[in-house]
Amino acid sequence: MAITKLTLRCAQGSGTDSLSDDGARHVAAVLPSERLARLKLRGLRQLSDDGFASLAGVTPVIRKLSVASISFGPKAFVAVLRSCPLLEDLSVKRLCGLL
């Protein structure tokens, strides 16, 4: 599989649940991580530090990460910095819960 960009999004006001930590672990298990260079996460308010860390842990070649309208804390960012040594571009917007 040659996927280089992945966007995971929960539409605002859709009334549906967003990606959970368990869902993130399932995505991480099947993610073609050896080529994934860009990851976008939008509106995934149920995703915690642990779920985000599971995605970061399987994306070592990611170069661009963009997150918006997400609730997680510092542990998630530490996981990204440790797991993604090639990261060049980090965009964070409307982050809730970071203390």
UniProtKB/TrEMBL annotation:
Highest taxon, organism lineage: Eukaryota
InterPro entries: LRR_dom_sf
Record protein name field: Uncharacterized protein
UniProt source species: Oryza nivara
